[in-house]
């Protein structure tokens, strides 16, 4: 019989004596994902996966969602009970503004989910990470928590669901990280994953200080505008058109602060 310290930690956290656990809370969702994703051997099965720069990873399908994990960088998708296709239909290629309160709440939820899950291995970095990006696209909220040393934690959440929110995220630091040049982009997350709403393609990373705007011309969705803020950029879209971007690269258009334009090929 294979034993794992995580099993005993998980069992203690699920002690029936605790009557005050919120079934909608971050801890409950993380524990549910961990229980369903882990087989008898305690190891997830290996399948194709969206990639995070400089890390090997694996993906486990659960309840219509996915879990992707690596040695230090982890990409996690948690299942929803409702929402799905209807939430994807609300997606917009240009992000919407959010109030200061909404931004703070979204950033706080992302930090809590990461702290209760994969972020426990990056607790110090996560504690000092600021909310670099907080945006909304229809029913979906994207948060990027980041430090100035390459570390980031990302959450993409379907806010139309209630009991279990459909979430996709990542956390970690690129291997051998060096800051980008003033007009350069460094991709940290690039590829396609699966949640119960369907395929989701993401391109996110670090932007040089002269980068003002990043635009991806999607064959399926038209122009998709990234949020560029505090040295980070992030965009995502429904579908799997970035499935091979990590290997083959994908071109984006860049506008600089002086009004000039150029192109940048993202790759991992």
Keywords:
transmembrane helix, alpha+beta, five-stranded antiparallel beta sheet, seven-stranded antiparallel beta sheet, transmembrane, 6 helices, membrane, disordered N terminus, 268 residues, globular
Structure notes:
The protein has 268 residues and is of the alpha+beta class. The chain has one domain. It contains six helices and 16 strands. It has a seven-stranded antiparallel beta sheet. Strand 5 and strand 6 form a beta hairpin. The chain is globular and about 40 Å long. The N terminus is likely disordered. Keywords: Membrane, Transmembrane, Transmembrane helix.
Task: Give the number of domains.
Answer: 1
Give the structural class.
Answer: alpha+beta
User: What is the total tally of β strands?
Assistant: 16
Q: What is the mean predicted local confidence, pLDDT?
A: 76
Total helical segments: 6
Cα-atom Rg, whole angstroms? 18 Å
Query: Which residues sit in consecutive blocks of at least 5 with pLDDT less than 50?
Result: 1-24, 29-51, 53-83
Tell the overall outline: globular
Secondary-structure element series: HHEEEEHHHEEEEEEEEEEHEE
Order of strands, main sheet, comes to 2-3-4-8-7-6-5
**Which percent band covers the strand fraction?**
35-45%
Largest sheet: 7 strands, antiparallel
The termini sit apart by 39 Å
